[in-house]
């Protein structure tokens, strides 16, 4: 059983085996044994009773053809057939109900495991993985795992039992009559193995094409404003059509494979050969007419597994293809872990970088090189530099959004990799330029880091962030639900809500990544005072180009091409640093 390192995890009710899709699905399914018991009982009982019914029909034929006709035997057979038919209906209902419960529980557990795994992936993973493809795996592929069990395994299990009933019951009439169902079973297994081998790559192709189709659609919708602004609707339509055509071609190729299902031909030969064999034995006076009828009825039971296999195994193959895609997502390497046993004492706020190098995974260009500096608790640090200088990369190493490639980042003298990740991040709050708000009420967005916070504290945080006034202009005030990503708010309003959210969590280290860029001058002065007040007693990093914010920093770090070009106060750097002076002269 493999262990995956997670940035975040929650205990699952049982351990799963992620060494392959079959092992993984089985490790989930084995814990659903009560549903399997219902399913197997229903499948075996249903097939056995149908076999008895076919034999009773043969018995009734003999009774009718007898001279004189044995009406008592006919009535007895009719009663037995009726009772078995009712019992079959009950068992079929139980089998279907058990299979559906099994499928729904599987979908729930698989979805939970995938969601927890996605929460535990680091930002490198989420930066490189297309959102649309992740959504396709989390929705459609998970749903295919559901369908793999109901109707997939439900029908397959029932059909397998049907395959063996003629073999078990036919010798009652004559031992040689087992030959036809045995030959059919052997041919069926060989043909099915070939069918599944050819079907597997087809279903993988279908699931992959659907993921790319969904990824393209998600990307276009997220960037719809850019698409419309550049009048690229037609170009996007053509790109989407290309993905849709790829998905169609994959589905057609799968259908073409399914159309060549050989057991359909084998069934025709089995029915014809078995009937001729029975008629031959009848001509030798070894069998009666009723025996021939009953035996042929048993052979007709092979019809169900043959026709069911045409689509049920396709459903299982699609489910395994979906499971393979889900598993590949969960098994992708993740270098960050919770470090539950790590350092978790109250944070003071000292920060130190020691000869830090950093490169994003998958990239060849170094974002930070040999970065070293110290910040004492309570200091305000301004990080300045041109676009691409590595400012944002630097601050995201503090809370382990990313990990260094070389060197150390220390908080309170402890390497951040030795901290308990939850304790580390609870003490640090980062407000970015691209503010993300959830499609919830304003109050819930502010209290996101502290669910259940009293309304009075939420309002106080909003006042500190200069957000209270504009919130009260909405009819529902703090209960106003913002649109997805906060699109119903202006840029400045979103940033003030984010500031309020940070103030409420009371972090020991506060990072403001150009977080006042979308705020007008009138509001900036108010927020500036709020930030100044909030920064007292806590370490504050400010990434900004605004001279008004840089002036009052205790320490200014000038970044240039991933390196520290200069460190000092505003007055010192104006005298000693060409790079610093150049920032304000451009």
Short description:
With 586 residues, the protein is α/β, with parallel strands linked by helices. The protein has helices at residues 21-29, 33-65, 71-120, 123-128, 131-169, 179-222, 224-229, 233-259, 263-283, 289-300, 303-330, 391-396, 421-426, 442-446, 455-464, 468-471, 491-505, 521-535, 547-550, 570-576, 578-585, and strands spanning 351-358, 368-375, 380-385, 406-411, 414-415, 428-431, 509-513, 539-543, 555-560, 563-568.
Overview of the molecule:
This protein folds into 2 domains: 21-330, ABC transporter transmembrane region fold; 351-585, Rossmann fold, CATH 3.40.50. Helix content is 61%, strand content 10%. The strands form 2 sheets. Strands 6-7-8-3-9-10 form a 6-stranded mixed sheet. It is an alpha/beta fold and 586 residues long. The protein has 21 helices and 10 strands.
Shape: elongated
| CATH topology-level fold name of the largest domain | ABC transporter transmembrane region fold
Tally of separate domains: 2
Radius of gyration: 35 Å
Strand content: 5-15%
Helix content bin: 55-70%
> Given this structure, which CATH class of the largest domain is correct?
Mainly Alpha
Total number of beta strands:
10
Give a short account of the largest sheet.
6 strands, mixed
Write the layout of secondary structure elements.
Layout: H1 21-29, H2 33-65, H3 71-120, H4 123-128, H5 131-169, H6 179-222, H7 224-229, H8 233-259, H9 263-283, H10 289-300, H11 303-330, E1 351-358, E2 368-375, E3 380-385, H12 391-396, E4 406-411, E5 414-415, H13 421-426, E6 428-431, H14 442-446, H15 455-464, H16 468-471, H17 491-505, E7 509-513, H18 521-535, E8 539-543, H19 547-550, E9 555-560, E10 563-568, H20 570-576, H21 578-585
Parallel strand pairs: 3-8, 3-9, 6-7, 7-8
Antiparallel strand pairs: 1-2, 1-4, 4-5, 9-10
Helix pairs in contact: 1-11, 2-3, 2-5, 2-10, 3-5, 5-6, 5-11, 6-8, 6-9, 6-11, 9-10, 15-17
């Amino acid at each position: 059983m493999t262990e995956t390192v997670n940035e975040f995890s929650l205990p699952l009710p049982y351990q799963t085996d992620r060494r392959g899709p079959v092992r993984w699905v089985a490790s989930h399914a084995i814990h659903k044994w009560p549903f399997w018991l219902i399913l197997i009982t229903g499948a075996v009982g249903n097939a056995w009773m149908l076999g008895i019914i076919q034999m009773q029909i043969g018995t009734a034929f003999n009774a009718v053809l007898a001279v004189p006709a044995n009406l008592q035997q006919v009535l007895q057979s009719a009663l037995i057939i009726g009772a078995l038919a009712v019992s079959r209906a009950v068992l079929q209902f139980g089998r279907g109900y058990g299979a559906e419960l099994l499928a729904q529980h599987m979908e729930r557990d698989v979805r939970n495991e995938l969601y927890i795994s996605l929460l535990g992936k680091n930002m490198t993973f989420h930066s490189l993985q297309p959102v649309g493809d992740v959504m396709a795996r989390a929705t459609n592929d998970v749903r295919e795992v559901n369908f793999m069990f109901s109707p997939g395994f439900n029908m397959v299990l029932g059909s397998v039992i049907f395959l063996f009933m003629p073999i078990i019951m036919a010798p009652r009439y004559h031992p040689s009559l087992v030959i036809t169902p045995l030959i059919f079973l052997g041919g069926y297994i060989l043909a099915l193995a070939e069918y599944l081998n050819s079907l597997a790559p087809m279903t993988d192709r279908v699931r992959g094409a659907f993921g790319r189709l969904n990824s393209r659609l998600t990307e276009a919708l997220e960037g719809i404003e850019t698409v419309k602004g550049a009048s690229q609707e037609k170009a996007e339509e053509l790109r989407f059509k290309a993905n849709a055509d790829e998905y169609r071609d994959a589905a057609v190729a799968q259908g073409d494979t399914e159309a060549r299902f050989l057991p359909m031909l084998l069934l025709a030969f089995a029915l014809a050969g078995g009937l001729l064999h029975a008629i031959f034995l009848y001509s030798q006076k070894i069998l009666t007419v009723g025996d021939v009828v009953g035996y042929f009825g048993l052979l007709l039971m092979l019809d169900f597994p043959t026709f069911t296999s045409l689509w049920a195994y396709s459903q299982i193959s699609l489910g395994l293809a979906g499971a393979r895609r889900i598993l590949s997502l969960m098994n992708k390497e993740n270098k960050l872990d919770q470090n539950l046993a790590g350092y978790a004492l109250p944070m003071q706020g000292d920060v130190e970088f020691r000869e830090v190098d950093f490169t994003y995974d998958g990239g060849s260009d170094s974002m930070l090189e040999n970065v070293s500096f110290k910040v004492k608790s309570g200091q305000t640090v301004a990080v300045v530099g041109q676009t691409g200088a590595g400012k944002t990369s630097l601050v995201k190493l503090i809370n382990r959004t990313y990990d260094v490639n070389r060197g150390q980042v220390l908080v309170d003298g402890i390497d951040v990799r030795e901290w308990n990740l939850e304790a580390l991040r609870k003490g640090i709050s980062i407000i970015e330029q691209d503010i993300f708000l959830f499609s919830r009420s304003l109050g819930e967005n502010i209290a996101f880091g502290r669910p259940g916070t009293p309304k009075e504290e939420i309002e106080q945080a909003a006042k500190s962030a200069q957000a209270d006034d504009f919130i009260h202009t909405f009819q529902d005030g703090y209960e106003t639900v913002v649109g997805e990503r906060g699109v119903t708010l202006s840029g400045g309003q979103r940033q003030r809500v984010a500031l309020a959210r940070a103030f409420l969590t009371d972090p020991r280290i506060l990072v403001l990544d150009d977080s006042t860029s979308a705020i007008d001058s009138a509001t900036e002065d108010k927020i500036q005072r709020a930030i100044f007040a909030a920064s007292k007693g806590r370490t504050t990093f400010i990434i900004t180009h605004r001279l008004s914010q840089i002036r009052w920093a205790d320490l200014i770090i000038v970044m240039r091409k991933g390196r520290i070009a200069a460190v000092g106060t505003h007055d010192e750097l104006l005298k000693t640093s060409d790079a610093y002076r150049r920032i304000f002269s451009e």
